[in-house]
Amino acid sequence: MNLHLKEFNIPRKILKWGDSQPAHQRQHIGTHIDCYNLSSIELPSEIDVSVIDARNIAIIDIGILDNISIKKNSFVIFRTGYLENYGYGSEKYFNSESNPYLTDELVDKLLDFNVKLIGIDLSGIQHGKYHVAIDKYVENKGAYVVENICNLDKVGSEFKSSLKWIQFEDATAIKVEIETL
């Protein structure tokens, strides 16, 4: 099962906007890894994944990890239900004022577990003026944020996945393909 948006899943208006942008901006369309610090990403081609159900939770805090085991060097994805319920590119999907977000304490706890990737089925783990700041913070700690993950309603809570990406010079985002194994 693929967990990345394919071009046919992306509304035409967003693709058209992307065509008018510099290459580094275009990479922020669809499923991608944010790398605002322009670090050279080194990830395994296969990784353990945990999907945490965060549907109907506005502020996703550290309590969500109660009774959940997080593996070192893993990929933790939060399923808010926004992509599956509202669709990528919709006004509701991109309305950062009403979208759920991860607290700083939760992000720090995940980094304490040495996760490599923190993912979400939204356009960011935090929004507005906090979006880029939290992505840079996570990157400075040796991990990365993956945005716009799809098909979380079709997978279990734990599995292995393969990762494929191409990093363009000076791009602040890297398109990523995520496939379950």
Kindly summarize this structure in a few lines.
This protein has helices spanning 12-19, 23-26, 82-86, 91-94, 104-112, 130-140; strands at 32-34, 46-53, 59-60, 75-79, 101-102, 117-120, 144-147, 158-165, 173-180. With 181 residues, the protein is an alpha/beta fold. The protein has a 7-stranded mixed beta barrel.
Main traits of this protein?
alpha/beta; Glucose Oxidase, domain 1; 9 strands; KFase_sf; KFase/CYL; Cyclase
Task: Chart the SSEs and their pairings.
Layout: H1 12-19, H2 23-26, E1 32-34, E2 46-53, E3 59-60, E4 75-79, H3 82-86, H4 91-94, E5 101-102, H5 104-112, E6 117-120, H6 130-140, E7 144-147, E8 158-165, E9 173-180
Parallel strand pairs: 2-4, 3-5, 4-6, 6-7
Antiparallel strand pairs: 1-7, 1-9, 2-8, 8-9
